[in-house]
Amino acid sequence: MRGAGVLGSLPVLLEPAQAFADPPASPGAVAAKPVAPASMAAGKNVSGPSQSGPAGGPVVHAFTQAPKLKTWFSDIDVGLQVEAGIMANSARTHNGQNFGQLLSPYANEPMLNQIALTITKPVDPIGDGYGLGFNFQLIYGSDARIYEIAGISDRWMGTEYELTPTEANVALHMPWLTKGGLDGQIGILMAPMGVEVLNPAQRAFYTLAYTSEYSVPFEHVGAYFQWHVGAWQVLFGIDAGNQVSFGKGNNNGRPDGYFGFSGQPSDTVTVNGLFRVGPEDAWRTLGPAVAHSAQRFWYDLNASWQITPRWSVTGELNHVYDEGIKDNTWSAVGWGSYAATPTLSFNARAEVYRDQTGGFVTQFPGNTSYMRSILGRPARTLSAPPTTYGDLSFNAVWRPHVSRYVKLLQIRPEIRFDRALNNTRPFAAFTHRDRILIGGDVTLGF
After folding, report:
1. Distance between CA 12 and CA 163 in Å, rounded?
2. What is the pTM of this model?
3. CB 271 within 8 A of CB 297
4. Half-sphere exposure (CA, 13 Å, Cβ side) for 242?
């Protein structure tokens, strides 16, 4: 929830950061947010090829160079990804805001959304069945204003374009409990809940659904684990809260946690379910007693179905209830994708989102308004009355091959229709019931 003055706790659980995303079979196709670890490759040979002959005897190599031994550091990957975009607004907004859009907030203004530097080390064996790796990602741009972490990066710059780490964690594999063992990440983590993620190469649309912006968390400092139980995974973890850390970087000094599951009932269907609970409201807003005891409950269920090699669909159901501010949201989102060619796909998204008291869907015009709201400090915000939002979006995703030096070129033109379904006027500085956004983004990965 991101409400005025009471903003509490928001890509991927156990998923490594990626400098760029290798194009999926259908570019732009959306799937349920992956819940996969940077796990060890089964049977990975770390000592070089076999040196035995047909009968187990030695092989004589004449004038051949000895194979290079793989070290733990040899598969570290470094990448760079850049995204820029614009969304023009059909309504002449007096305040220059695209209301309800956190990552494309400014109407008719080109934006450098993010420059992402990513360093990853997949989990490799370190002995006795254990594995170790790490993930690190630093982003600069307008998106960083919404992904900062209080007590870590919220005071670094204070400008329209910010700098923040989105991942800085140690990834582990532990051969415990079951044959598949336990995977974990400890440190700064992207939140696991929901479908749409920060990485533009891993989501279908430039704009985000209301659910993705206001009813799932973004960043955590904590630990998350994935326990492999047969074909399914049990998910659990604990953290300091949404986009907060410790000490003065926390808004109420109480922990939050997740519990859920992920699995594939069939080769073409993936299902994820997560429940989250814990205090998220700032003590400066509600007072220590209420802020420490009032719980926020988050529920998210999503599934994806690859109907054919060309057609796929994804659905998400979400509910959030906050005891402190007595507010809740309900929403349903659906995505559909058609892969016309190996490099071109077309997507559609439809959503109904109910903000019961108007405390969740909030705009943050100031450069530091978002993070100040999380901490309960005075901030400039814009909120609408209780509203049921409907949005319908269409786009194309084109990923042409450029050269071996450019790993990804993604171009996404988009048109989005928003409407207040209960006759309120949340758009165009609270003068319009409807709005059309037209624009898109370009992403380059190296």
Report:
1. 20
2. 0.85
3. no
4. 32
Q: What is the pLDDT of residues 206-255, one digit of tens each?
A: 999 999 999 999 999 999 999 999 989 999 999 999 999 988 888 888 99
Alpha helix ranges (H) inside 271-382: 283-286, 288-293, 369-374
Could you report the per-residue pLDDT of 274-324, keeping only the tens digit for each? 999 999 999 898 899 898 999 999 999 999 999 999 999 999 999 999 998
DSSP label at residue 17: -
Token pair belonging to 368: 């530091």
Sequence-distant (6+) residues with CB within 8 A of 261 are 232, 233, 234, 235, 271, 272, 273
**pLDDT tens digits for 163-182?**
999 999 999 999 998 999 99
Encoded tokens for 267: 């080769």
- Alpha carbons 256 and 261: distance in angstroms, whole number: 17
Phi, psi (degrees; rounded to nearest 5) at 210 = -55, -40
Total count of residues recorded for the chain: 446
Q: Residues 303, 314: contact at Cβ < 8 Å?
A: yes
Structure token digits, residue 75 = 């598969």
**How many Å apart are CA 43 and CA 27, to the nearest integer?**
31
Residue 134 · residue 155 · CB < 8 Å: no
Burial grade of 359 (CB within 10 A; 0-12, 13-18, 19 or more): buried
Q: C-alpha distances in angstroms, 61 versus 47, 68, 73, 132? A: 17, 15, 28, 34
Single-letter amino acid, residue 195? V
The H or E element that residue 370 is part of is helix 369-374
Please tell me whether residue 372 adopts helix, strand or coil conformation: helix
The closest alpha carbon to 81, from 47, 115, 110, belongs to 115
CA pair distance 286, 327, nearest whole angstrom:
14
Percent helix / strand / coil, the chain, rounded to 5? 5, 45, 50
> Residue 181 phi/psi, 5° resolution?
75, -165
Beta 162-174 vs 182-190: how paired, if at all? antiparallel
414 touches 395 (CB < 8 A): yes
8 A C-beta contact, residue 377 and residue 22: no
Q: What is the largest CA-CA distance in the chain?
A: 84
Element (H, E) at 170: strand 162-174
Tokens coding 77: 């990957």
CB 1 within 8 A of CB 256: no
Q: How far is CA 107 from the centre of its chain?
A: 23
Give the Cα separation of 363 and 95 in Å (integer): 11
Coil, helix or strand for 287? coil
